[in-house]
Amino acid sequence: MKGPIRGQFYYLYLFMDIFSRKIVGREVFELESMELSAEIVDKICKMEKIKKDKLYFTLIMVDQ
């Protein structure tokens, strides 16, 4: 996502339940980081009461 300043970008982290198509988490950050996405997954697991060993991931990456 482009920012208000030329050359500045933001990254949208969006997590969706592929069975219900419910968006279970989303955050926007100024940088792309595996640590940030791991924090969001932890937060989603707590909010949705999901055990981490029951997660199934489909990773889709989209470039700017």
Summarize this entry quickly.
This protein has 64 residues and is an alpha+beta fold.
Which strand-content bin applies to the residues?
A: 15-25%
What is the general shape? elongated
Low-confidence stretches: none
Multimeric organization: single chain
Write the element-wise H/E pattern from the N-terminal end onward. EEH
Structural class: alpha+beta
> Describe the biggest sheet?
2 strands, antiparallel
Q: Total number of helical segments?
A: 1
Radius of gyration: 13 Å
Tell me the strand order in the biggest sheet.
1-2
Cα distance spanning the termini: 7 Å
How many strands appear in the DSSP assignment?
Answer: 2
Average predicted local confidence, pLDDT: 81
Helix content: 10-25%
What features would you highlight for this structure?
20% strand, 64 residues, 2 strands, alpha+beta, two-stranded antiparallel ribbon, elongated, 1 helix
Structure report:
The protein is α+β, with helices and mostly antiparallel strands and 64 residues long. It has a domain at 11-54. Helix content is 23%, strand content 20%. It has one helix at 34-48; strands at 11-16, 23-29. A hairpin with a 6-residue loop joins strand 1 (11-16) and strand 2 (23-29).
